[in-house]
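Box 3.1 — From sequence to structure: ABC transporter
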Amino acid sequence: MLTREQWGARAPKGPGGKRTALTPAPITSRTEFVVHYDDATPVIINGLEQLKSRMRGMQVFHQGPERGWVDIGYNLLVASSTDPIINGLIVEGRGRDVVGAHCPNHNTTGIGVQVMIGGNQQPTPEALNAVRDLYDQACKDAGRKLTIMGHRDGYSTECPGQILYPWLLKGMPRPTTKTIPAPELDPWTRHARPEDDEWDILDTIQLTLCRLGKQTIPPCANLSLINALRSTWALPPVTEAVYGRDLVRKMQEWGGRLTVNGILSAETARRVTKVMNDQLTGKGL
Ligand SMILES: [Zn+2]
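Predicted structure (token representation):
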């Protein structure tokens, strides 16, 4: 998930522009899952930076005079893009467990999820899978089967459009195809979204890049030590939510020295650690 912090969200905005707190809506109190699209215009987003910028723009609009909401209306969003770096990425809007502003009379009972498509644009299979993931997790956490709704079921609107709505009526089945078969891609650009236990690995790679540049790495061969040292060294924060292009480019500069396949894994971490240690002993970069 791309968090609010990662896309650069502002604080929720109350009356008079003052900071405010969002109203909690505990998951156990939810009964509905409300799906949206963007609007009649197709949505084109390329790359993580465009996605972040789009989120910031949406927040400004929703908090602005035209809408006047405390924050982004949707609880969560899902990117649908031909760019494998962001395709199917879940984005935190207002957050799942707070009252939204996406459908009158359903903002406390319903979790509002926007799929980033417009008009008759086809959502990617990865985006649909991500929506389904969100739904399954929400039902599990709520302890009940949430009612699947389109925005139009609670309000007079076209939303979520002619493509998504029939899918909702069918119960949001998982698609059987993938947009981009991973093996056909250059492994360096293959999409890899870190699983929970892979965040440490991503941190390691980024920290390694930072420290190699400065030639000041003390011996450190394991992830927990690196993480412990982060605060001590005041290292730059992790800047990428996915295995993004900048990171790939930097790793490519290492050429044969760091032969990894572009997929985050324990093997990647081992290789990164080895390069780091070689550098410390004078054999490396
Ligand atoms: Zn809607």
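Summary of the box: The longest strand covers residues 110-115.
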